[in-house]
Amino acid sequence: MHLNFIALAVPLFLLFMALEYRYALKKNRPVFHWRESIANLNVGIAERLCDLLTSGSFFFVFLWLHRHYAWLDIQPTVLTWILLFLVTDLVWYWYHRFGHVVNLFWSAHVVHHQSEDFNYTVSARITVFQSVLRGLFWSVLPLIGFPPHMITLLLLIHGAYPFFTHTQLIGKLGWLEYVLVTPSHHRVHHSSNPEYLDKNYGDVLIIWDKLFGTFKAEDQTPVYGLTQPLNSHSFLWQHFHFFMELCIAVKRAPGLLHKIKLLFGKPDTVDASIRPVLERKFQRKKKPTAPSAPLLKAISVQTAFTLAILFFTILFSYYLQPLQLLIAAVFIFLSVIATGAMLEQKQWVFPLEYIRLLLLCLFLCVTVPNKYVWLCSTSLLLVLLLYYQSLKSRYYALYPAS
Ligand SMILES: [Zn+2]
Ligand SMILES: [Zn+2]
């Protein structure tokens, strides 16, 4: 059986999150907040799905670049593995630094910094756009001459390390603080304290920050999140708010030169007053109320279900037909959007739910093309639709339009 074992990253990282949660409870450290954690996990679900669709394609891009444009003919030896690790970490440093100081790139990276929590779930906040952007930066590696199979293996290890730097429960780590990016260094990076802004961009090694003058040690309590907090857990808003702000700022800028300057300028060049205008248009007037116990349960169950679908989609990806993969991908994307809408108590969540049910039914019919399966799934769909109709009236009564 040909399984895609990358899927195991999903339960493995969930296990570490659960362990951190239990340890935080034991130590009486309130580092987890339900809304934040659910929103973080849902961003991560979309990224893992997108990674499944993009990482394979990038392997072929690396192969093509290496075959036609490689500068050197590098063979795998101990020395070249070390060299590849160093170059990868250096490329990451600049990819990350550009992600903070260039508006166009910040519109993708901003999502990683929206959470006001700092725990392992925050490491999942990597956007769909970032997985594409990251691939473009990694293209330097085959151009230098590193073989694609070396790059792919190293990126797997390199990509796993930053998960462990997203925690408040590990203090300073002695001499390792001089060499590695530790949780302490990364706490600084995620903080909005003025002294901590645009610091500690490194991924595995902290030496690049020391070399390029962006290092800051953790010497005061960090305040996590953006300097202008988002106050929303909507998946769509989190992904597109800065992109829309940038579009409006560019539209308002006089002349082509000013527009280009804005696209490649720093985030503080975008007028901060644009956000409230967009919020009035797209966000609730009143803040969401505390969710009722059934809504809370529904959101948690939905997130767990989406995680399970993601896990099986990745695990059996080699066996899925393009149509099955397409249905599963659309289902997962609609699920994370619906969860964000429920967290924000939006009214338009029910049409999404109906489409999701329809997709589930469609997947069953495509996978098992049998008239009895078709009959059973259609009947189940009708029962569920009736059930959703009763839920809808209760939901609208509890969470009226603002
Ligand atoms: Zn960052
Ligand atoms: Zn981070």
Automatic annotation (TrEMBL):
Its main location: membrane. It comes from the Bacteria. Keywords: Lipid metabolism, Membrane, Oxidoreductase, Transmembrane, Transmembrane helix. The chain crosses the membrane at residues 46-65, 77-95, 136-157, 295-319, 325-343, 348-366, 372-388. Signal peptide: none annotated. It is found in: Endomembrane system. InterPro entries: Fatty_acid_hydroxylase (IPR006694), Sterol_desaturase/TMEM195 (IPR051689). Residues 81-214 form the Fatty acid hydroxylase domain. It is a multi-pass membrane protein. PANTHER family: ALKYLGLYCEROL MONOOXYGENASE, STEROL DESATURASE-RELATED PROTEIN. This is Sterol desaturase family protein. It comes from Niabella pedocola.
